[in-house]
Amino acid sequence: MPATRSTQRRRRTIAAVAALPLLAVVLGACGYGSEGEKDEKVAPAAEGEKIGGLDEVKIGYFANITHATALVGLQEGLIQKELGGTKIKPQVFNAGPSEIEALNAGAIDIGWIGPSPSINGFTKSKGQNLRIISGSASGGVSLVVNPKKIKSLDDLKGKRIATPQLGNTQDVALLNYLSEKGLKVDTNTGKGDVTVIRQDNKQIPASFEAGSLDGAWVPEPTASKLVAGGGSVLLDEKKLWKDGKFVITNVIVSQKFLKEHPDVVEAVLRGSVKTNAWINENPDDAKAAANAKLKADSGAALPPEVIDPAWKNVDITDDPLASTLSVSSEHAVKAGLLEDPLLDGIYDLSLLNKVLKADGKPAIDDAGLGAE
I need a labelling partner for 47 at 20 to 30 A (CA). Which of 57, 183, 336, 349 fits? Predict the structure, then answer.
């Protein structure tokens, strides 16, 4: 029997509603990252005088525990408080290369990011696009494997190991480690003695549990998610570094933005330093704040069996650990991702040290790689 007009209207309405999630996915795929819920829902709104009359500052970060400074600073309003009426416009990224693209395009002004994309972006622009202006975190990266398929580090040959993105910090670390183990992998295709699969952090746990991955070299909280799903930590990357310290997250800024709005950059750094101090003084409250921000950005908080070990595995610091950046650049060269890395002038810690001095804290060294 032919449908009535009212039935047809109902069907069209249902079809339109059903299409909304797909539309959201398509729209979310556009651009460089994915914006989470607006910060006004979880943090104080911009109030007071705008710094230098600037309406907003665009800040990028990852929904990773290794980006705890950004997560907590945004959630608790510690960074926004320093900016007064200049509003923070946040954007979430999966991995560093896409965040560098956004910085180059002017889609963000300041970002929390790993060392390898920072080096790569700086080198490719011949030292013209960014500066590293602060540290944020050390550690928080592990090689997690299926213990039924990989029982030791000598069992990696022939296995499928994931990283978040070609050329990101974990990708470089894995490629370098495999090379040191005598295992050959084509950098671009990921094929070789070990198959390196580049996959979004959000997708890796599902792939791991489905059996399409044998392991993953990933940051927190993805590493702890894999462990909660039956994985085993085969290697904590801290064991590969002197004193167990290596930069996993630093803060970068567009050189153009730094030149035009140094007062805004200084305010963000004040917020970052205060956030780091608050995190280290209030670890449990900070962990809860980071989890709340993750929920706001992704729609789901992390369960205790994930957030607790992930939080313990990351060290929060203002120090960018500049000497370890040089080592990371050497790894990128060995991996075939860089030919002649440019590091001279990659740091400008002048505003950070100004903030630290005002707090009665010692200056931080740039390992001779600072801008003149």
Answer: 349
- pLDDT digits 0-9 by tens, 148-178: 999 999 999 999 999 998 988 899 999 999 9
Distances 61 to 32, 98, 267 between C-alpha atoms, Å? 12, 11, 17
Q: Is the dihedral of CA 303, 306, 309, 310 positive or negative?
A: negative
What letter would DSSP give residue 253?
Answer: E
Please report the sign of the dihedral spanned by the C-alpha atoms of residue 260, residue 263, residue 267, residue 272: positive
Residue 219 main-chain phi, psi, to 5 deg: -85, 170
Position 70 scores a pLDDT of 98
Q: Measured between alpha carbons, how far is 90 from 151 in angstroms, rounded to an integer?
A: 41
Buried b (16+ CB within 10 A) or exposed e, 243-252: eebbbbbbbb
Burial 182-191 (b: 16+ CB within 10 A, else e): ebebebeebe
Closest to 245 in 3D by CA, of 309, 321, 172: 321
**In this model, does residue 98 exceed pLDDT 70?**
yes
HSE, side-chain direction, 13 A CA sphere, residue 158: 4
pLDDT of 1: 41
Q: Are 311 and 229 in contact (CB under 8 A)?
A: no
Long-range contacts of 99-106 (CB under 8 A, 24+ apart): 99/32, 99/33, 99/60, 99/62, 100/129, 100/130, 101/32, 102/31, 102/32, 102/33, 102/60, 103/60, 103/129, 103/130, 103/252, 103/254, 104/129, 105/32, 106/254
Cα(170)–Cα(201) distance, rounded to whole angstroms?
A: 11
185 vs 168: CA distance, rounded Å: 16
pLDDT in tens, 203-251: 999 999 999 999 999 999 999 999 999 999 999 999 999 999 999 999 9
Q: Which residue has the tokens 């651009």?
A: 31
